[in-house]
Amino acid sequence: MLDLLDAQKMNLPNVLTIARIGLVPVFALAYLSTENYHWIAALLFAAAAFTDWLDGYLARRLDQTTLFGAFLDPVADKLIVLTALVLLIGGHASLWMTIPGLVIIGREIVISALREWMAEMNRRGVVTVSWIARVKTTLQMVAIVILFANAPEMGRPWVIVGLVLLYAAAVITIWSMVIYLRAAWPTLKDGFHASTTS
Q1: Cα-Cα-Cα-Cα dihedral sign, residues 166, 172, 174, 180
Q2: What pLDDT does residue 4 have?
Q3: Which DSSP letter does residue 198 get?
């Protein structure tokens, strides 16, 4: 077990993914405790978001993709994004922030459950990351950096820019969820019929 952990799991891409998870409490603490220096939380979140791209690039470039990395990478992504959205919803205490935040959080829960179900049905490959999901991820990462870097005041131009990007990400989030659900629907239907007839 330890040999597997050392040889397969702890390559550079996976170390970066673990580091990304480690940044979650750090940027959360920075956001909550440095009211006049939110840009510190923005920089820390941006660093975490950058490792999201970097670990995937290195895994492909160095041919170091592993099952452990395939499991851990989306977990790390969800942790940083959902934590950031919860912080922003609480910090802004505004319906304008709450709506897109809850849409994105809800989508992540639904898709995570869907992927788990597809894995149980041995059809994990049906639900894969699409270019739409990548666009969504990019928009929400940029939006969160902008919103973190600025005080939660609706009148600020950069806050408005961040919200517009977050709403765009929320719309694409719904779009991508519909695509995933349509792709998985035959499997979901088969599972439903199997459970009702057994």
Answers
A1: negative
A2: 43
A3: -
Handedness of CA 81, 84, 90, 95 (dihedral sign): negative
Closest CA to 78 of 129, 147, 5: 129
Output the pTM of the full model: 0.84
φ/ψ bin of 93: left (φ > 0), alpha (ψ from -120 to 50), beta (otherwise):
left
Q: Pick from 194, 91, 95: which is nearest to 151 by CA?
A: 91
Through-space distance between the first and last CA atoms of the chain, rounded to whole angstroms? 38
- Report DSSP state, residue 157: H
- pLDDT averaged over 10-residue windows placed end to end, the chain, 198 residues: 50 89 94 85 94 84 81 88 95 94 93 76 61 87 95 89 96 89 74 54
Residue 34, phi-psi category: left (phi > 0), alpha (psi -120 to 50), beta (remainder): beta
Query: Can you give the pLDDT at residue 190?
Result: 67
Give 73's contacts (C-beta < 8 A, 6+ positions apart).
Answer: 17, 52, 55, 56
The three-point CA angle 47-49-52 to 5° equals 115
The whole-number pLDDT of residue 111 equals 84
User: CA-CA distances (angstroms) from residue 76 to 19, 21, 53, 72, 105?
Assistant: 9, 5, 12, 6, 14
Burial class of residue 93, CB neighbours in 10 A (0-12, 13-18, 19+): exposed
Side-chain half-sphere of 127: how many Cα atoms within 13 Å?
27
Residue 1, pLDDT score: 38
